[in-house]
Structure formats: C-alpha cells, structure tokens
Design a protein that fits this description.
326 residues, alpha+beta, Dna Ligase, domain 1, D-amino Acid Aminotransferase, Chain A, domain 1, 4-stranded parallel beta sheet, 9 helices, 29% helix
Length: 326
Amino acid sequence: MTSAARPVLVVAERLDASADMVMDELNKRDVPVLRFDVAEFPQQLTLTASHAPTEWGWTGMLDDGRRTARLEDVRAVYWRRPGRPVIADAVPEPYATWAKNQAEAALLNVFAALPGARWINNPHHDRVAAHKPQQLVVATRCGLRVPRSLITNDPDAARDFAKQVSGPLICKPVLGGRLPVDEGRQLMVATHYVDPAAFDHSIRTTAHYFQEAIEKAYEVRLVAVADKVFGGTLHTSSKKARTDWRTDYEYIAYGTVDVPEDVATAVRRFLAYYGIVFGSFDFAVTPAGEWVFFENNPAGTWAWVENRTGLPIAAAHADHLRGACE
C-alpha cells in the first residue's frame, strides 16, 4: 500500500468538534480516515486481529459496516475522548461489566501494539500524565514556575500553610470531573477562594488541594502539538471568571500571544517526560510578565481556542498524524 493510502484512525465521540476539525484537515491532505467511537464496539464495530510468532505486529481488520481499515496499514491513531464499549442488554451482570472491560482493553492494547503508528495521545500515557500533583513536580524540573501548593486533610496543616503564604488562597479538585446532580444535570467543582479563618474539622472529610492565588494579568490556554506551541489568551472581566474562567464565559475576551522560548522549551520537555505529543496547558501571566504553570490536560479541549483566535491547531494535529509515513 502506498503512503498516501495508509489510514488514520480517529477514535472519538460522534459529537466532538476537535475530532471534526482534525478530520477536515486530514481530508484536505488526502489522508484516508476511519472514525469511530469505542462505544460502537463490539455491537456495531468488528475487530479481527491476529499475531504469529514471526510477525512484528498484529494484522487484521477493523470494520464499522461502511469502511474497513487493515491494522497493519494504520499510520496513526488520534485517540480523542471516546466513550466506553456498550454491551448488549441481553448480557447480565456481572458479565456485562467484565465484557465491557474486555472490549475496551482489546481495542486499546491491539492499537498500542501497531508497529510504527503515531499517537495523539496514547491513553496509557495519558492516564499517568493527567495526575496533577506529579505534574507540579515535573513542571518544576522542566523549568516552569508553579504555585506553592498543599494537599492535606489536616486542618492544622492547612492553617500553617495559610500563614506561610500570607496571602489569598484557592482550593481546587485533585481530580477533575463533574458531579451528577439530578435529571441529567452535572455540577462542575470549580476553583474557588477560601478563607483560612473558616478552616475547621470538615477538612478531614477528604483530601483538599490548596494553592497560593497567583495575581493574573491574563491567562493562557497553551496548546502543544508535537514541537508546535500555540498561545491563546483569556482576559477576564468578572470576579468569577478571574477565579475560574470556566464559570463565566460571557466575561472573557480572547486573543493570542507569542509563547516565550523558555516556556516553549519547558513544555516540550514536559511532554517528552510523559511520552505524549499533545497537551492543553493552563498558565497565568503575572503583571510582571512571568508565566506560572497551573496544570496540563493531556486530553483537553482546544477547538474553542482555534475558533476564537484562528490559531492553526487542527492543522498541526493533521500534520503530525500524516507525518508517520512522510
């Protein structure tokens, strides 16, 4: 098969703007694409993979009923927040849960064993790269400034930390995600300011993630794709948005900024440490112009950055995925 005919697998939910944009760019480059959601396996998607002792990788077929891809010809995999396998209702518990885990492991681990295929990002690496406490250590080692931080369930330790900082404090989740409320509604646990005078025994109910509040001139969603970095700025004009811009989108003005070379170099080191090529990094830029790293989401959103700024992020994805054979 010629290089031009080798497909990219796009693994994403059907309603995913980032996947749509990358597919458009791949189509412009005449790169064949097979897109599917893990939720379609095993009921609508068929996987047949085999391996012989003399072969370098798995061979076989992936078929969604409309298009097929030979596993040995896959040039790259764009793994973009897919769903989980959906098992037929006829399978009772506990076998349905077992079958779901089997199906998910089969797809992921066969794809991970494809020789020469590029990834954005291999989810095995994503899981490790998403751990926020470790991110602060890695970011520091890579040359980035990070906020002073404390994770504790001890009220006395929290009070001591507040005295050391001697300034505003915020509290944020260690693990991101949303809480189901009722009737399908979900609650986002946002970053919020805390008053040390109110610290009491309730801190013992779980782990709390405290940080010094960083004074911000503006914030940056830095999107990294391989060796390229894109800086999308967020200038906030409400207290809610300044605390956590996800809570007040109406009071955000968007723009772009050139990423300083020392920050770009540190970000590339950060990606290399985790063995990933993509990340959505959150930074604050202080009034003095210093960049402060908050966290990286290795499967973070970025379509809104391109849509509001014109930064060619989807094109960078497509170039990396296509480049496996070029």
